[in-house]
Amino acid sequence: MACVPLTRDLCMSRSTLLSRSIWGANIHRGLATHLARGAASAAALNVQPRSPTTARSVQEVVSDDLPTISMDGRKVAVGWDTRTWSRFHNIWLRDHCRCPQCFHSTTKQRLLNTFEIPADITPSQVEPTADGLQVSWPSSESHVSLYPWSWLQKNSYDPPLGQRETRAEKIIWSSKIQTSPPTITYQEAMAEDDRGLYKWLSHIDRFGMCFISGVPPTPEATEELSRRIGFIRETQYGKFWDFTSDLAKGDTAYTTLALGAHTDNTYFTDPCGLQLFHLLSHTEGTGGSTLLVDGFYVASILKELHPEAYSILARTPVPAHAAGEPSALYQPSPPSGYPVLGHDPVTGELIQVRWNNDDRSVMNNLDPYQVEEWYNAIKTWHKLLTSPDSEYWVQLGPGTAVIIDNHRVLHGRSAFTGKRRMCGAYIGVDEYRSKLAVLREKFAANPNTPSVLETERSIWSPAL
Ligand SMILES: [Zn+2]
Questions:
Q1: Does the structure show a pLDDT above 50 at 200?
Q2: Distance from Cα 145 to the centre of ligand 1, integer Å
Q3: How far is the CA of 40 from the centre of ligand 1 (A)?
Q4: How far is 38 from 232, CA to CA, in rounded Å?
Q5: What CATH topology corresponds to 3-154?
Q6: Where in the chain are the domains?
Q7: Ligand 1 centroid, distance to 69 Cα (angstroms)
Q8: Fewer CB within 10 Å, N or C, the chain?
Q9: pLDDT exceeds cutoff 60 at 50
Q10: At 139, is the pLDDT very low, low, confident or very high (cuts 50, 70, 90)?
């Protein structure tokens, strides 16, 4: 009786097979699992044998409590359970061998010559082991690769099992964040064990900004605080900047005028990642509140209420320039610029907001039919950006610094009178992401990856 469904199911397409959820309901459990695995493994490789002879050409290895393996001339399939299979091309597996001959365990760089792998390479043997999938390759000297199960699962591309994302969830915010904005103390940020630093960077990662209280109101302490994260990124405004409102740098930032919510460096190919600033003093005057707006929050509303405008901002490149000083003329590469809303090309996730209407150059790349709809789209965007629901106003004073993710949170200020002394720094996005990743390895090791010693990174780290 058991043979009948086996024969029939071997002829089924994979989708038919997977859609059947009643596998083995009436048969002995162990047998059912075996049958399911046999049929599913053949189907997993899209092999549809017409007779048991052909079926036997599909190798299958079943070990208790280990994933099921099957292979054909092109791929190895790993069955996590009877319904979930990941297929890996033979050439992909060979290219990702991380044995000491193929991958340098210290430098974490590939040693193997990818271009010498025969296009039709096929394992001589595959075996599930407690440590992972063991694959032997045909060659004059024996070559054995071992891939940890968790690594295979995380890197499964056929189908993607969606476990690659290690980033923490973002918390988007409106003006209501004023009741409890993310804050850490200077002492926490500077503490030697780096736990406070991890907390700080995690706040920036989730909220796109964080206040630091109790900072000594000096440029020296503020610079030291900035350097906790990484190198300061030097720009035309200097390295660590410390300035008063004197228009010294040919930019509105150096005046007493109000500044609408914007991101910095829209005229750079890679705008600075983080910006930290600290008001050291404000004398003989008033005003100068700081404005913060979560660009991801505003984008989410735009997408919900005006999807067409969102789409226009996501696809229309905007040129920009910084040209206030005779000695500098910045434009991004390519000069046509980047869209206001930048997305991850793989996941489609919003990853960057670039917006400074003051620095925008001539819009000469629009098709004639796009001109009016583009102006309508930025007007809608501007309206949401400047709504009281979006704007978080805070009066900063000496002792409280703020750091913002310049790829997400827009900043501005109200006009002021008197004399203000501001200091601050830019930190590159790569330095910040690197520091956060290292601290994450240290304090929030993923239990699914092989143990990471504090001193040495695993060759199976999800980032490699
Ligand atoms: Zn190798």
A1: yes
A2: 6
A3: 29
A4: 58
A5: NE0471 N-terminal domain-like (3.30.2020)
A6: 3-154, 175-442
A7: 20
A8: N
A9: no
A10: confident
